[in-house]
Specification:
CATH superfamily of the largest domain: Immunoglobulins
Number of domains: 2
Strand content: over 45%
Largest sheet: 5 strands, mixed
Number of strands: 17
CATH class of the largest domain: Mainly Beta
Mean pLDDT: 95
Structural class: mainly beta
Distance between the termini: 108 Å
Helix content: under 10%
Length: 193
């Protein structure tokens, strides 16, 4: 008597991400597990992200293996965002990671003492790469003058701008304030006649 049996194709069992949160522009470690060893030639598992902060990818599981790992780059982002990755192979499995926006590390003005008509250079430094158009507000107190905002180029961690003093007849001290969201930095500039 002849017996017949069915060989089931592997299906996805789980998808995991090692990290719970990372800064945009760094990498995450993704693992995919399948229900049985991959056949000869291996098998591909498409992995899609629900946000452009992480690119879609295909993870190839070699023949005889039940899993595969990948180091996946992320992109800078302007606000903290929960991104879900979903693998598909005869079903789906998902896991999520928070991609975090850059925050300000420091703000400097150089020099801190200038003469009437003189200028000082402001520099904002971030803790991770900026997305394109990442903008900070700039508020110089009169008689200081400068841009109302500055934008980072994509991937940069610093941006500079120039503040110019108007004419004064006595020594004055004025502030330059930079803000983004809930973050605020202030620096005082001394202006001589």
């Amino acid at each position: 008597m002849q017996q017949s049996f069915t060989i089931k194709a592997p299906t996805i069992s789980s998808l995991t991400i090692t990290e719970t949160s990372v800064k945009g522009g760094t990498s995450i470690n993704v693992q995919v597990y399948i229900s049985s060893p991959a056949p000869t030639g291996g098998i591909d598992v498409p992995v899609t992200a629900d946000n452009a902060a992480v690119d879609n990818l295909t993870m190839h599981i070699p023949d005889g293996s039940n899993s595969q790992s990948a180091v996946v780059p992320t992109h800078p982002i302007d606000t903290d965002t929960l991104v879900t990755l979903t693998g598909t192979l005869g079903g789906t499995a998902s896991s999520s990671v928070t991609i975090k926006a850059p925050v300000g590390l420091s703000f400097t003005m150089t020099p801190l003492t200038i003469n009437s008509g003189g200028s000082s250079t402001g520099k904002i430094t971030l803790d991770s790469p900026a997305p394109a158009g990442f903008t900070w507000n700039v508020i110089p107190k009169s008689p200081l003058h400068g841009p109302s905002s500055v934008s980072f180029n994509a991937g940069d961690t610093t941006v500079t701008f120039t503040i110019t003093a108007g004419t004064v007849t006595s020594t004055q001290t004025r502030t330059v304030t930079v803000t983004h969201g809930l973050q605020t930095f202030k620096r005082s500039i001394h202006i001589n006649p």
